[in-house]
Specification:
By secondary structure, the chain is mostly helical. It has 6 helices and 4 strands; from the N terminus they run H-H-H-H-E-E-E-H-H-E. The strands form 2 sheets. A two-stranded antiparallel ribbon has the order 1-2.
Length: 200
């Protein structure tokens, strides 16, 4: 979030060290995805300092960090128009995130793709006694929707990977719908989970 001001403030060069930093840890992120979830692609820890290794704690259930940061990659293109950056950095990063989603998302009987487990780092569904774990946390769904949409747009811009675009658009059409509370506010999570073992 500290970098959100860089592009609107006409300081795109300040984003470049962030991209270089993230690229240094791609091997760690790939190992996280494989070790914690048996998935391809990348999984970032919720916070990191000297390495990118995610620890097997409750916070490993937040799978949106790489997608969240993917916003910076695509926004850099939107603000600069740098197509070479899209091909060299933005698409590869977004594709790694999409690979994780392809393996991680669970297909429900009705064809919907669900986040299971899921969590929002800022909401506790059902109150503090329920814990952090849920299904289809709105944040996870929103980040995935943005990643897949940006990846499709970038590939179409570069006129590449039509099969991937078709696959990702199909995934987009099957993501859970957003829900609202009785007071009209966007719900933090569509469904609660009753899996206490994931909280440990």
């Amino acid at each position: 979030m500290n970098y959100w001001q860089a592009l609107p403030g006409n300081l795109p060069e300040l984003c470049l060290p962030l991209f270089a930093y993230l690229e240094r840890f791609l091997d760690d992120y790939r190992e996280n995805a494989r070790r914690l979830y048996g998935c391809r692609g990348i999984l970032m820890p919720i916070a990191q300092t000297t390495h990118g290794v995610a620890l097997p704690t409750v916070w490993a259930n937040w799978v949106s960090a790489a997608g969240w940061l993917g916003q910076h990659f695509y926004d850099y293109y939107l603000f600069t128009g740098d197509r070479e950056f899209v091909a060299r950095l933005a698409v590869p990063w977004l594709r790694e995130v999409a690979l994780f989603y392809e393996d991680f998302l669970v297909e429900e009987p009705d064809g919907t793709l669900s986040f299971l487990p899921s969590m929002s780092p800022e909401n506790v569904p059902g109150g503090p006694d329920m814990g952090l774990i849920s299904m289809d946390a709105t944040m996870d769904v929103a980040v995935c929707r943005e990643v897949l949409s940006c990846l499709c747009g970038a590939c179409e811009l570069l006129q590449e990977d039509p099969e991937g675009v078709e696959r990702w658009r199909n995934m987009l059409s099957r993501l859970p719908a957003y829900e609202v509370n009785d007071d009209g506010a966007l719900r933090g999570s569509s469904r609660r989970s009753n899996w206490p073992s994931l909280q440990a």
